[in-house]
Amino acid sequence: MTAALPACDRTIAVSVPVATPVRHPRLILATTILASSLAFIDGSVVNVGLPAIGRDLGADGACLSWIVNGYLLPLSALLLLGGAAGDRFGRRRVLVAGVALFALASLWCALAPGSGWLIAGRVLQGVGAALLMPNSLAILGATFNGEARGRAIGVWAAVGAGAGAIGPLIGGWLIDVVGWRAMFLINVPIALLALYLGMRYLHDTPNPARPTLDLKGAALASIGLASLTWGLTVASSTAGIDPGAAIALVLGAVFLVLFLIVEHGCGDDAMLPLALFSSRSFVGLNLLTFLLYGALGALFVLVPFVLIEVNGYSATEAGAALLPLPVVIALASSTMGRIAGRIGPRLPLTLGPLIVAAGFFLATRIGAGGSYWSTTLPAMLVIAIGMAAAVAPLTTAVLASVATSHTGVASGFNSAVARSGGLIATAMLGMVLAAHGAALVSGFHVAAIVAGVASAAAGLCGLILLERQP
Fold this sequence. Notes:
mainly alpha, Growth Hormone, Chain: A, 18 helices
């Protein structure tokens, strides 16, 4: 999933106004890349480690879901607040705080004695990522201008995709050689280098406006998403909705409705101005993003899990099995971006998700015997081609769907929606992650079909809701 997220996030940098010229722009670029890479690496490497974590800590399917979602939940709910905090208190200050928190949380995860402690550490990692991600991108956007900005964002996106791609491979090797705790320790030297560069070379530009922070909106969104995720996780783990899960689902819906009411009352100070949703294209783009990235999030959790548990892959081999997807996306997305610039985003954002759907249907051959080359690789390649057709047009379409004054919050919200899709999808995988043998294969095939249907629905959103462009 993280391999496609750099393209989804890059609109945040594009939407930031350029500040006065700064010294050491290359070192500033290196700082933003290192900070963002923490989130990209950790978002992908943990998926490869789930089988080892489950065996070592005795974690059931629900706990494994929360080890993933403990990170995604605060990142989804607090991403917009992290950007607003940078605007108010200084992007350098909030970035450094986020990187420091991420490093400490990584140490916490590496030393966790049980699954509950590990989930708590993952939550702290998610909070740190919500602080560092939008501010690293905002610093990047404010440092460069014109063609230099385009090149810098391209380098940032390429390195982010590479980090997301190489993370499972390196993490798998560390799991096989040292143990799963080592995959959290690789964050520490990266964070220390980012802290050193950030403290030395980043400088804040005072913001006389000092925008207010929508703490009430952030709290309601976090509680609502947490309740909804908890209810879905419990329901998926028990193959039914018991009273506790039902209460959690209802509370989640109530808090999210309250969030919308509060945002409506906050007007221009809202974390999420509801005026954005007056654009039909903006609504369609975010529905498409939620469905497509939700399907992709389920893929990145389940495929390595099935390959390790059913087909006997090592963690390194499972990480390498996913490598074709980010490689193809990185190589082909720029070409698709140029094509979309000529023909408009509607056709690529219709055909791309439909191709992804075909890849998910091909994935139903994984786990039922056969070699990697005849089962896993064809599915990965088809999904990658479809994602490459969609990710670049999606970034430009989000910016074009709203007024210029709202591009920053619109792009940040779209990034949060992408992660929320993975959050909800992972919450529904509890029973699959708890299964073994033939039941695991069967559950995975059902999940792949559901992901294919969701991807096809995303394509229909692109066809029906996006406006035609010359």
